[in-house]
Amino acid sequence: MNRPGGPRCDPKRVFELADGELPPEEGREVLDHLDRCPSCKKLYMEELELSACMGGLEVGETPSVCREVAMALPTRLMGARVLWAGLAVVLLVAVSVALSLDGTNPAAFVLDSVGAFWGFVSGLAEVAEAFLVAAGPALLVALGVGAVLDLLIAGVVFSVSRRRAREA
Ligand SMILES: [Zn+2]
């Protein structure tokens, strides 16, 4: 690859040139080589694209896109969704804790192996199970009602925005 006196392939220097870390004189040598060597030229262009891409990310292109998306979402609907999602997570956790009370469940085995925490955890699990038995059906109903309400709100927002669009 490295012929004395001839053009030399040096990927490290190609990367350094693309990152702008090479002194001007060495940079000119590498650029000379790039003119004659397609494979190093390809490497150089790829590295340039890569650093441009990473530079864009650092400057904050993605956060600005996220901000636009977040601003485009109707915040009230978002709030309702987050609320019901939170309830769903609570329900899921309660169900998992209740399942871990079953001796054949792998989760119970894991809890067993923790040993020192078992008493504490099982105490918590009993409380959670009692809570689930008492509040589980109510939570499920609340979740269902919430989903219907969410749909109703979405429908109202949709029809209002359509009427506004027609009036405008
Ligand atoms: Zn080369």
Explain this structure to me?
This protein has seven helices and no strands. By secondary structure, it is mostly helical. It has two domains: about 10-65, no CATH class; about 75-165. Zinc ion binds near residues 9, 33, 37, 39 and 40.
Shape: elongated
Distance between the termini: 70 Å
Question: How many distinct beta strands?
Answer: 0
What hetero molecules are in the model?
zinc ion
InterPro entries: Anti_sigma_zinc_sf, Znf_put
Keywords: Membrane, Transmembrane, Transmembrane helix
Protein name: Putative zinc-finger domain-containing protein
Pfam family, one: zf-HC2
Task: Set down the secondary structure blueprint.
Blueprint: H1 11-18, H2 24-36, H3 38-59, H4 61-72, H5 75-100, H6 106-114, H7 118-167
Domain Putative zinc-finger: 15-40
Keywords: Membrane, Transmembrane, Transmembrane helix
Protein name: Putative zinc-finger domain-containing protein
Summarize the structure.
The protein is mainly alpha-helical and 168 residues long.
Main traits of this protein?
single chain; mainly alpha; 2 domains; elongated; disordered N terminus; transmembrane; Putative zinc-finger domain-containing protein; Znf_put; transmembrane helix; Anti_sigma_zinc_sf
